[in-house]
Structures are given as structure tokens and as C-alpha cells.
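TASK: fixed-backbone design
INPUT:
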């Protein structure tokens, strides 16, 4: 994370965007391989896994790639020419993959990211109004398309009808007691594993990064990590306000959504997003200073 951040800080801003483009193209390749039947397998509850990636992590990865592709198509910062609209073609297959994972978290994360993008993208007013209504229709069609998947539809209906959270709320109520027993420095990851195997029917991670941090590293670790998140938030807002580049802020929102209901602390993609946000803001700052000196 630190090496990538420092490297991107000293590169042209386009390099950071190329990293996101490369990630998205890699995800498209993954989608194509899946459509051809490579690497696919299903869990006992018929949720898709792909090349060893679990359903929730896979769903989040694809959701991020979809938002990146949408940004590259519609944000002027990423004007990739007329051929950029070809990036729309793999999105239906990617939506189908998210549906097959049955990941409610990925569905919500994608929905929040898409809604935030439509609401906050900077356009001329007349184009913004047109973009809003077209996006509203596209969102409706995407939801209908994704709900054709029985596994996603049944899991969403279960959440709505009964408030089912796949045991998350029960786990939170149980493991939060571990924080109160060790509030300053926490009990560490191995300590959590030791106690969780004793107090939970079957071992499960907390499925909430903020609770996870409190249990692992106590108030001290939680404050340190919160300071990092605050810096990333500030850089994301700077990129949006000063550079009219919305994507970093949207990706940050998606990560926070993941943190609220999933296991995002050890997902490499999350740390790549953080590195890009920090490095890109610094790169734009350096680029602005260089341009001012030249003029």
C-alpha cells in the first residue's frame, strides 16, 4: 500500500487511471472466462465462486469494475474517444455474475455507488437532466435483470421479509463483548480466533470492519485507522472539488459500504483503491505546481 502510494504520487495522474483501466480489463477477462465455463464452481447454497474467489469478495470486485467502466465512459476526465462506449458491452454479463454470487452486500454496494455517481457527476445542467433520466431507466432494467437470478432474489426477499443478515447481527452482539474486555489495545487477530471458536457455534469473522478493528486492536488501532480513512476521504473530496474527478470519492463510498457489512480489511483491492486515491491527489497537486511554475 505504501509503496504503491509513494510511486503513484510521483507519476502523472494518467498512470493511476491506467491502473484502474487495467484492473477493469482484467475483470472483463475474468467475466469472459466465466462465460466460457472456466473457473466456475458453486457452493452448497448455489452461490457462484470463481477461481477460488468467494461470493462476497467476487461480487465486490465486479461491482468496483462496473463503476470504473461507467466513469471511464461518462466522466470527461477519462475521455477515451468514441470507442469508450464499447466498455458498456460486458456490463450485462458482469451484472449476471454479481447476481449469481447471491451477494446482497455487493448488490447494495453497486447500487449505492451507481446512485452516488448519477447524483454527483459534474455536467452541464441540460445534459445532467438527460443523464439522470436515462440512468434511472438503466437502473430499473439492471435491477430487473439481476433479480432473474433465483439465488439473489431469494436472499434479498429473505432480508426484506425477516430482516435476515446471515447471522451478522448475532455475531456482532456476541463479539462486541470481546472489545469491552480489552478496550485499549484489543486482543489481536489470533486472540479473536481463539475466543471466537469458544463463544460462537461455528467460527466466523465479524463481518463489520469497524467492529473487527475494535476487537483486534482496541481504541488505539481504531483511532489510527480512522485517521487514515479521514485522510483518504479528504483527498477524495479534493479530487472531486478541485479536479472534477468523481470516481475516487465513489470508490471510497463503496469501500465504506463494504466495511459496514463485510470483510474488507484484508481485501487487496480495497488497499489498491486507498493507494490510488492518495497517490492521485498528490500527483494532481504536483502537476498543478509544475504547471504554475512553467507559466
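OUTPUT:
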Amino acid at each position: 500500500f505504501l509503496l504503491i502510494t509513494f510511486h503513484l504520487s510521483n507519476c502523472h495522474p494518467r498512470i493511476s487511471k491506467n491502473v484502474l483501466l487495467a484492473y477493469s480489463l482484467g475483470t472483463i477477462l475474468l467475466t469472459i472466462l466465466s462465460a466460457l465455463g472456466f473457473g466456475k464452481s458453486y457452493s452448497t447454497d448455489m452461490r457462484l465462486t470463481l477461481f477460488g474467489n468467494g461470493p462476497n469478495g467476487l461480487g465486490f470486485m465486479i461491482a468496483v469494475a462496473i463503476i470504473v467502466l461507467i466513469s471511464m465512459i461518462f466522466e470527461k476526465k477519462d475521455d477515451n474517444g468514441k470507442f469508450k462506449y464499447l466498455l458498456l458491452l460486458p456490463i450485462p454479463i458482469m451484472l449476471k455474475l454479481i447476481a449469481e454470487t447471491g451477494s446482497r452486500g455487493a448488490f447494495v454496494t453497486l447500487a449505492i455507488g451507481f446512485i452516488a455517481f448519477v447524483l454527483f457527476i459534474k455536467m452541464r445542467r441540460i445534459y445532467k437532466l438527460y443523464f439522470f433520466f436515462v440512468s434511472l431507466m438503466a437502473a430499473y432494467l439492471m435491477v430487473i435483470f439481476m433479480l432473474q437470478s433465483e439465488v439473489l432474489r431469494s436472499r434479498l426477499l429473505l432480508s426484506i421479509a425477516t430482516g435476515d443478515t446471515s447471522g451478522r447481527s448475532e455475531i456482532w452482539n456476541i463479539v462486541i463483548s470481546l472489545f469491552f474486555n480489552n478496550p485499549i489495545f484489543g486482543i489481536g487477530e489470533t486472540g479473536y480466533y481463539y475466543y471466537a471458536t469458544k463463544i460462537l457455534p461455528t467460527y466466523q469473522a465479524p463481518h463489520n470492519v469497524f467492529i473487527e478493528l475494535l476487537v483486534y486492536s482496541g481504541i488505539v488501532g481504531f483511532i489510527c485507522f480512522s485517521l487514515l480513512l479521514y485522510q483518504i476521504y479528504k483527498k477524495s473530496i479534493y479530487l472531486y472539488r478541485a479536479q472534477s474527478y468523481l470516481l475516487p470519492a465513489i470508490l471510497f463510498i463503496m469501500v465504506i459500504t463494504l466495511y459496514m457489512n463485510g470483510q474488507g480489511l484484508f481485501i487487496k483491492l480495497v488497499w489498491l483503491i486507498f493507494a490510488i486515491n492518495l497517490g492521485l491527489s498528490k500527483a494532481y497537486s504536483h502537476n498543478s505546481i509544475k504547471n504554475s511554475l512553467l507559466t
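COMMENT: The CA atoms of residues 32 and 93 lie 8 Å apart.
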